Every structure is written in structure tokens, then in C-alpha cells.
Amino acid sequence: MIFTKTARLLTTAAFACAAMPALAQEVEVLHWWTSGSEAAALNILKEDLARQGISWQDMPVAGGAGEAATTTLKARVSAGNPPVAAQVLGMGVTEWATEGSLGDISVIATEEGWDAVVPEAVKRFATDDGKWVAVPVNIHRPNWLWINREIFEEHDLTPPTTWEEFNTVAQTLKDAGVTPLAHGGQPWQDATIFDDVVLGLGGPEFYRAAIHELDPEALGSDTMKAVFDEMRVIRGFVDDNFSGRDWNLATAMVVNGDAAMQLMGDWAKGELLEAGVTPGEQVLCVPAPGTEGSYLFITDFFAFFDVSEENQSGQQAMASALMSPKFQEEFNLIKGSIPARADVPSANFDSCGQQAITDIAEANAKGTLIGSLAHGHAQTPAVQLAIFDLVTEHFNSDMSSEDAVEELLHAVEAAQL
Ligand code: GAL
Q1: Which of ligand 1's atoms lies nearest the C-alpha of 34?
Q2: What is the tens place of the pLDDT at every residue in 354-402?
Q3: Cα–ligand 1 centroid distance for 371 (angstroms)
Q4: Minimal-distance CA residue to ligand 1 atom 6
Q5: Closest of 248, 265, 231 to residue 375, by C-alpha
Q6: 393 burial type by CB count under 10 A (0-12 exposed, 13-18 middle, 19+ buried)
Q7: 25-140+298-355, superfamily in CATH?
Q8: What's the CATH superfamily of 144-297+374-415?
Q9: Whose CA is nearest to atom 1 of ligand 1?
Q10: What span, in angstroms and rounded, lies between the C-alpha atoms of 69 and 170?
Q11: pTM of the entire structure?
Q12: 65 alpha carbon to ligand 1 midpoint, in Å?
């Protein structure tokens, strides 16, 4: 099988050389990496491919967490015109694979021994029925709290480790006229905070039961009510202009001292680096309150669609470039994440990156490495969006926690039908 496919590629290449001028290879890539650090990280890949004579046709669809990109991708695939590759989050890969829309890149995966270097938790999303259908480029951790150190020092505060401490610290800042929390009111950002609160108040077992298993008892519990109580308190700590704000602008508020904290994944660290700020120095990174010892994770994958044969060699070259240890190091140093490959040297990562590398190993060993709901690694897109809607509606209204819990149960049930 490997031989046949390789032979076919070689034959195609030989034919191309002999019979016509070399065809310029091109890969059209759909993605949502449009912030400064995201674009800079992606550039590493564009340059890698350019060196191999592969040109990049950019298809960016702005919007954090890929909300808009996912819609565009769906439209392209249903019109029978998929891109060569697209950025997709974990459960999205599973869904595309189940629909039979993805190609098979197992030949290159086997040749390069990906099985041995990609952690199980990540590999499960990259493979379907034993075949590799997507390439993992990173591991991000959404459950971080970013803190402007100077503001904390000025007000004599220490980083909160529980939600109760968070509330006290945030209230002190608010009373002193400082915006405690930089936030962007977009459903995925509200859901990022919800992820942190469910995990922080309920612990990893509760997160699994409520969010992964959709256990009605956990979803309808007093703990879940306490989660919505906390969401209501947090709503009081954001500024008046939070609605619709992009996540990177919220990060900039922390950098510039316009707000003291942000609850956000470590793509925020990419923006710190881009702004010339040293993570762990001017801006501190600590696990979101109550979540120490657990590691919510997400991986950005490039999924390879079932495209015409002439585009397949570009796909293989791109897959190989994405999985090279050198690429994974250079890319992740800019992006704020850690490599998806377990064998990339960690020495060059900053102190927050080092902490992520230590914490993920620990969480993996004790079973607290958990896929994030907000970032497509826990539920089908249908259930995920149903929860997003409810969380956002609650955040932006005076809905009681009792009503929120009841609505959550209904929404989850309806989305599973
Ligand atoms: C996530 C993605 C990250 C990050 C973020 C904001 O979904 O995995 O890489 O860039 O969105 O766009």
C-alpha cells in the first residue's frame, strides 16, 4: 500500500518532469489565524513551504476560536469545493472524518513515525478508523489567568488560587477604579470563562461528568448553580465596552495596564511576545483559579480534505512540514502553545511555556488532562453551540442561576436529539 502510493506519486512527478514544465504546487489553506502573533506563527509554515517550491494560497477567515471560519469551511465543503487543508479543532476533525470528507495521510505518517511521538490524547482526534486524517501542530491550554504584575504590586495583591480569592482581589481592584478583568463578549470567550469556573469550582471529575458525559445529575447540581452564581459575579468585573471585543484587544488591555487580568488560553502569550513583553515577568501566568493540577487542552489541527490527485502531493508536503520537529519548535515559540510532538526540545521555551510542559506531563500522569468544551475538544459542535448560547445569554441578562441550570439541561437534551 505504502509502496503503491509512493510509486504513484513518483510516477506522477516523473511524468510531470518529462512531459511538461514543472507544475508549481499550490496549497490553499483556510484558517483563522489573523492576530499579530497568529499570523507571525503561520508565516513560519508559509516560508517552509516556499523553500520547497510550494506556494501558499491564503484563505483567512477572521474570528477567534474559528467561529466564522467553521461556517465558511462548511459552505466550501458542501459546495464541493474544499480547500486543500483547513485549520480545525478536535471534535471538528472527528465530524469531518465521520462525514467522509477527509483524505488519508497515513502514508506519510507511517514513513515519519508519527505514532510514536504524538500523545494519545491528541492522536485520538487526528486519526479515524486507524487512518491519519489531520496533523496536530500544537497543544494550547485554555485555563490560564494572565496578570499585570505592576497593577498587582501597586495594590499589594497576590495571584488568586480560588474563585473566592479571585472575587476578593477583583473587588479590591474595582473599588480602586481599576478594571479587574479584560474580556471580550463573544460566545467562545464567555465559554472560555465558563470552562474555567466549571473546572475550578467542581474539579476534574465534575468537569468530566457535566461537560464530557453530560450527566444530568451533574448538569442540574448545586455545583452547577454555583458556577452560574460565579459567572454573574464575574460579569460585574468587566468594563462597559466588553461586548464583541476581540480576545487580542483584551490581552492588549492587560499589557497596557488598562485592566489587571484576563482569563484566556496561552495564545494570549503569543500576543505578549509580539508586544515585546516577557511572559512570567511583566505579565504573570497562573492556572485559572481552582484549576491547578488540571490541564484543559486543545490542539489546532490541519485537516486534509479529499481533493483531486494533483493536489495530493502538496498535501503530503504540507503534512510533513507541519510535523517536522524544527517547525513545531519555531512555530510554538511564537504561538504561545507547546508542541504536539513529545520529542521537541523544551529548552528554548519561556517560563510559562516551561510550566505548561511540566504541568501537562503531571496532568497526563494523574488523569487530569481534559479536552476543553469552549475549544472544541469535549462535545459535538451541536452540543457545544447549545451550551455557548445559554452561557452567553446568562452572562448578558439577569437570568437566575436556577433558571440557567434548568435551561442548560433542556438545551443539552435538545442538542443531542
Ligand atoms: C483557538 C485556537 C488558537 C487561538 C484561538 C484564538 O481556537 O486554537 O490557536 O488562536 O483560537 O483565535
Answers
A1: 12
A2: 999 999 999 999 999 999 999 999 999 999 999 999 999 999 999 999 9
A3: 14
A4: 64
A5: 265
A6: middle
A7: Periplasmic binding protein-like II (3.40.190.10)
A8: Periplasmic binding protein-like II (3.40.190.10)
A9: 65
A10: 34
A11: 0.93
A12: 5
